[in-house]
Amino acid sequence: MSLTALVHSVLRKLKGDDDGVPKEAYQVNIASLGARLWDVFSRTYDLGFIGFGGPPVHFQIFHRRFVDGMGKTPWIDEQTYQELFAISQALPGPGSTKMLFNIAQIRAGIIPAAVVFLLWSLPAALAMFGLSLGVQRINNVLPDPVYALLSGLNASTVGLIALAAVQLARKAITDKLTRLLVVFGACAGLCYNALWYFPVLIVIAGTITVLWDCWLRAWIGKLKRKRSNTHSATPEPLVESGLAGENVQSTEDNRGGPHRRHAAGRNSTSEIEQVDRNNTGKTDDASINQDATTARPQPPARPSANSISGHGIPVKFGILLIVLFFAIFTALMLVRGLLHTPPLLLAIFNNMFLAGTIIFGGGPVVIPLLREYVVEPGWVSPRDFLLGLAIIQAMPGPNFNFAVYLGALAATSASPARSAGASFVGAMLAFLGIFVPGLWISVGFQSVWRALRKRQEVVSILRGVNAAAVGFVFTAVYRLWEIGYLTKEASRGVSLAQEPWWLVVSTLTFTAVEWFNVPPPVAILTGGIAGLGWWGAVRR
Prior knowledge:
This protein has helices at residues 3-15, 33-44, 47-50, 55-68, 78-90, 95-108, 110-135, 144-172, 176-191, 197-232, 237-253, 258-295, 315-338, 344-358, 363-374, 382-393, 402-411, 420-452, 456-483, 500-515, 520-538. The chain is an all-alpha fold. The longest helix has 38 residues, at 258-295. The chain is globular. The chain starts with a helix and ends with a helix.
């Protein structure tokens, strides 16, 4: 057997029987487990290495890969994508990771989705663990070029997130109401920042759209119809002119006899009635069509016509999963409250599990919360925290891998030896604590969503949640902009607006990716190089 034939034979064995793998768009893969694993691996193996830019950019990558297809079979349609995006923002935990997991689960089931999660998260998690080992051995003050490099990476990341916000808004905005909700989410997110705040904004947005789509729009349509009918009840000028025409005709017909006069009168009256009837019918039809258009939801708010059944779990089992999760969460919080000095590793896991459960809104909320959980107890120094924060912005994959870095540093905070084994255990506990809650709740909630997604009320709620969540992305642009500039004197981060060069870097990144199709990883690395170039020019 030749080498080529041997390779193909091994690949066929790894893939299994792929006859059942669907070739049509938007179809669920119900082939053998081996074929499903190969199906998801071949489409997602590189995401953990190219997913730069944070969740807003990740959502765009997922759209191109799984909705547009990029030359391959699309997995989900646009409406399903928008619903998953809304759900991933409405539930706690890492938004882009939950969305990728849900897409893979719809396509191939739970086990392939778990494999996709590992392919997505492990590359950057390992990199952040390696960074934690290196940070433990460096001086307290970093060289100036490092600060310039990190500032350049942050500036280019701001440009990427701004571009992702614009692109997401183009898809989320389907009418004037969703346009207002995007602005509402962005402005409200800028004005205040708290754990409870973003869930409240999401609930408000969903309530507004469901009230508008299901009740207010039809009610306003009825008012317009009544007003239109009131105006149409006034006497028409055509009737008066018709009667005048009959009198004139009668005067003229006195010369020709009574029979001609009566025939002309009947014809004139019938023609006027027919014209009036036709005009009234056209007016009513136009009014009805206009009101119907106003009363109907916009096409993006209609339930998806494509089925996603095949790998769903029963609703009862999904609800049981959610109840079981909150039972475990309650037990962990009781332990957290009853033990005055819990073991360090248990405290790390508890803090990360709590963060993964209560974080809504992504970056704007997770950073101050994690800072409170690891810096305030003295486990991680402020400098190490901000250094890891700057690095994670330039890493591919989920930003929640920041917890791996923090867990590794926290686990060695009480030990002068700072062993790699203790760092690894802390990193693993932090990884599980920050990711498991969001994925667990997402799996349970997906069963409920599958059962209710055809209801117009659910579609309308998700439409509003989706629009407000896109507004939060604009908030993330501002938040990172305000802490992106790192210097020796301001290691906590200050606004990039203090140096015009960073605005140039952000603008060029936005332009290069949007108009010249520069890959995001290349754009981010170019931003870092631009930061080094700036430092070489000004030496400050």
